[in-house]
Write a structure and sequence with these properties.
The structure is a single chain. This protein is of the alpha+beta class. It has one domain. The protein has three helices and three strands. The protein has a three-stranded antiparallel sheet with strand order 1-2-3, with no helix packed on it. A hairpin with a 5-residue loop joins strand 1 and strand 2. Helix 1 crosses helix 2 and helix 1 crosses helix 3. The relative contact order is 0.22.
Length: 88
């Protein structure tokens, strides 16, 4: 059941997400710019924390009201869309 909650939370977050340009440091500590998917974090904090621990969301450093998907999180969300037969 816990896995289903996490999957459905990620899927709902993805379906209500938007794109935003942001900065990040790569593995060589170089500053880069990219487009990231973001979503409001109006979901279970337990599920959000689990998704963050699993690498699907970036860790929150500030008290933002939104979360940012990692590339792995976006990939899983797209797979979940296919599995649950949900269209964008």
């Amino acid at each position: 059941m816990k896995k289903n909650i996490e999957e459905l939370t990620l899927l709902l977050m993805y379906l209500t997400s938007w794109e935003e340009e942001g900065l990040y440091y790569d593995e060589n500590n170089n500053l880069n710019k990219d487009i990231f998917k973001k979503s409001w974090k109006g979901y279970s904090f337990d599920a959000i924390n689990e998704l963050t621990d699993k690498g699907y969301l970036f860790p929150r450093k500030y008290k933002n009201k939104s979360v940012t998907f990692t590339k792995e999180g976006e990939k899983l969300a797209k797979e979940l869309m296919e599995r649950y037969e949900v269209g964008e």
